[in-house]
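input
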Amino acid sequence: MRLISWNVNGIRAVAGKGFGEFVSVVSPDVLCVQETKAQDDQVMDALFDIGDYKVFANSADRKGYSGTAMLCREEPAEVSFGMGAGFCDREGRVITADFGSFFLVTVYTPNSGSDLLRLGYRCEWDRHFLVYLKALEGRKAVVVCGDLNVAHREIDLAHPKANYNKSAGYMQEEIDGMDNLVGAGFVDTFRLKHPGEVKYSWWSYRANARPKNIGWRIDYFLVSSRLAVNVESADILNEVTGSDHCPVQLDIRR
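output
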């Protein structure tokens, strides 16, 4: 299966920037989208001509904010929304699909914010999310993808020293959350296949960051350890534009 994950920073915006052509060329079996910034009906309207895909959307209570979607060529056995954690499920951040041999979870992890006002919420989210994933893994293997809003190691951002414990996405508490995922047996597939490669998936719109490649790797595919042998390739498609993020890709045997 070819799986793609992309924070599009607005599904209606990216729909007018070659999104359909990208899907046609790359031809994923499943495309997971984060930060749709749209309600369910608006997501469907934006993707009305996307082709032979079944679309599932999970929108935030607050209009124009957050939101995730999953485009599936093969209809999953079951799809669920949220993670059953009450207050954590009001922002449309999680979709889970059952593809028989594994669960596919797409997530848009909360950003701690420029003033770090949501860092506490973010840490609580990370705890709930790990519990949710381990419960799923008790049933079958799990593939997790999305914008995890954290650069895990120094190699994963252009200016680690300047940002460490100062900037959302590279606070020690956020790094600890990622450490907990990896420690619980979830394998970072890009690092599995490219242990020393410097490649980013997000660039600020400020200071000409993308042309200068002053970026962060905050978009991931993680897999249960028992699926690691099934990973054929993992990549970051940083030539694809249309958002401040670029897509990430996983090719995996079922």
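quick obs: The first strand starts at residue 2 and ends at 7.
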